[in-house]
Design a protein that fits this description.
It is built from 10 helices and 17 strands. The chain is an alpha+beta fold and 397 residues long. Helix 2 (92-112) packs across helix 3 (117-138). GO terms for molecular function: metal ion binding; protein serine/threonine phosphatase activity.
């Protein structure tokens, strides 16, 4: 690790998060510095584990697990809902999704009296429209809200079937047992919408044949219009409605040429598949995890250790890898406070959901335990960070 970086890190350690260590009860999760975790809980089809580590000054990742009724009807359906919402540009969109998406799912499931891909599609659309309404109300007072958005990954286990809906680049991976060998193999279930993937770039080129600059390679990273890495999201209204891509929005978000059709989409990719007896567990996580750990590495960590604390174990493995990449000790990385920590890794959210085949097979008649848990973060006073220089300022000083 370079001396400049070490000086930068030392300057920014400032007040430690140690004063926030080990607070909270296990029912609502525990806080250990910038790490929030709930090591174990029970959902309709087995156990679950959940963990969040904060890197941004304001936590942009939001998450939830809901178990029990998936509608307002006594007749059901019943099941488990998991949501991972990885915000960008600020926390407003991911917080909005956390407050509204599941309610929309329940409303449309009540109307259809069942769970379906259409229920999830309508819930995503209603959430997008609701956030757009919020942007229109706040636009004049808070124009930058038009440039805030979020990835949105949802998984629903209901009636022995798994439903996955996704916009953005969060990911869900299934651990499936191979009976012949006893191995548990990783199967990625979600389709990602990141323009670093060739097929995603081709999709944008085909949707915008008259715009040769729809995707730009900038600082060795592919970005839509040179601005954003994901092609689908909730929010990011400045790239969906041209009337919000103008003053008083910051110049860096404004395009030179007005656009005629939405550049980004909120249409989710949806997968529906029956769960099999060999399906052991699901790992839902924001891209902060997958930047450092492969699908199979994550599955191996979950499979080869006790169920309790599996999500926290995955977060720790990612942080250890992030520290290794910067040639620093994991113990030193943990001392770096929020905001500055974002130079080393992103916010990371992980939910591990175990699949008990006996409970999965009971379909929608299994009401299971009713619970609602949201992934946490720490809320610190605005002046709790030590003033420190940016890496650019350091190199110039």
């Amino acid at each position: 690790m370079s001396e400049a970086w070490m000086n930068f890190v030392r300057a920014c350690w400032g007040p430690s998060s140690a004063q926030y260590i080990h607070s909270g009860s296990d029912a609502v999760g525990r806080q250990d510095g910038l790490l929030w975790y709930k090591d174990s809980g029970q959902h309709t089809t087995g156990e679950f584990s959940m963990a969040v580590v904060q890197a941004n000054n304001l936590l942009e990742d939001q998450s939830q697990i809901e178990s029990g009724p998936l509608s307002s009807l006594e007749s059901g359906p019943y099941g488990t809902f998991v949501g991972i919402y990885d915000g960008h540009g600020g926390p407003e969109t991911s917080r909005y999704i956390n407050d509204h998406l599941f309610h929309h799912v329940k409303r449309f499931a009540s109307e259809q009296q069942s769970m379906s891909a259409e229920v999830l599609r309508k819930a995503f659309q209603a959430t997008e429209e609701g956030f757009f309404s919020l942007v229109t109300k706040q636009w004049l007072m808070k124009p930058q809200i038009a440039a805030v958005g979020s990835c949105c990954l949802v998984g629903v286990i209901c009636g022995g079937t798994l439903y996955v809906a996704n916009v953005g680049d969060s990911r869900v991976v299934l651990g499936r047992l191979v009976k012949a060998t006893g191995e548990v193999l990783a199967m990625q279930l979600s389709m990602e919408h990141n323009v670093g993937i060739e097929s995603v770039r081709q999709e944008l080129y085909s949707l915008h044949p008259d715009d040769s600059q729809i995707v730009v390679l900038k600082h060795n990273v592919w970005r839509v219009k040179g601005l954003i890495q994901v092609s689908r999201s909730i929010g990011d209204i400045y790239l969906k409605k041209p009337e919000y891509n103008r003053e008083p929005l910051y110049v860096k978000f404004r395009l030179r040429e007005p656009f005629k059709r939405p550049i980004l989409s909120s249409e989710p990719s949806i997968l529906v598949q029956p769960l099999q007896l060999q399906d052991q567990f699901l790992i839902f996580a924001s891209d902060g995890l997958w930047e450092h750990i492969s699908n199979q590495e994550a599955v191996d960590i979950v499979q080869n250790h006790p169920r309790s604390g599996s999500a926290r174990r995955l977060v720790k493995a990612a942080l250890q890898e992030a520290a290794k990449k910067r040639e620093m000790r994991y113990s030193d990385l943990k001392k770096i406070d929020r905001g500055v920590r974002r130079h080393f890794h992103d916010d990371i959210t992980v939910v591990v959901v175990y699949l008990d085949s006996n409970l999965v097979s009971r379909a929608t008649s299994n009401k299971g335990p009713t619970l609602s848990v949201r992934g946490g973060g720490i809320t610190l006073p605005a002046n709790s960070l030590a003033p420190c220089m940016t890496p650019t300022e350091l190199s110039n000083s």
